[in-house]
């Protein structure tokens, strides 16, 4: 089954120009890699004269795919992995989040006593025999009876071990951002398993490179128009 690409509608515009960011091959849905600051767009619903119209609904709100992928990327910021922070978000058919996870060491296993290296002479001195992937944690963290028929949003295309978990749990679609390990044996095996099981996988192409969360946006500074009027 070929990797699909789904591109979302442009959404809001800034200064009259829509934003289209990364160039990526094949059918994709796109969401930008999360940086330290995840943000809401600064665009506003505007009238014909360019001013914010507070009497109409916003047109720059996050689309569903952007929202769920952003949740996955935000979850990734909990990861202590120094080289790769990955998050996953599981969504049911009602567009409700039923599971979230990120890559990290197993519960009860001190991440100060286990290695985080990617390479070492002894494989036991690397993170790979120990770390739990985001997909595994998201499935185990589910807040519903099961995740059958759900969609998983995840930063990286899942490895073969995670593909097994996805298949066995009944997840029917994977939306991912990066496929940078496409040619590795693990990813080749993953695609083989997903194809055989009929699990759809789609690369997401985001319309905005960053989503910024501003904690002070809920308490904006309000200018009092009467403040400059002197009291009698």
From TrEMBL:
EC id: 3.5.4.12
Gene Ontology molecular function: any one: dCMP deaminase activity
InterPro entries: APOBEC/CMP_deaminase_Zn-bd, CMP_dCMP_dom, Cytidine_deaminase-like, dCMP_deaminase-rel, Deoxycytidylate_deaminase_dom
Catalytic activity: dCMP + H2O + H(+) = dUMP + NH4(+); 5-hydroxymethyl-dCMP + H2O + H(+) = 5-hydroxymethyl-dUMP + NH4(+)
Enzyme class: hydrolase
GO cellular component: cytoplasm
Region (Disordered): 1-50
Bias (Polar residues) ranges: 8-18, 36-50
Biological processes per GO annotation: dTMP biosynthetic process; dUMP biosynthetic process
Named cofactor requirement(s): Zn(2+)
Keywords assigned by UniProt, alphabetized: Hydrolase, Metal-binding, Nucleotide biosynthesis, Zinc
Entry's family note: Belongs to the cytidine and deoxycytidylate deaminase family.
This protein's name: Deoxycytidylate deaminase
Organism: Branchiostoma floridae
Name of the gene: LOC118420247
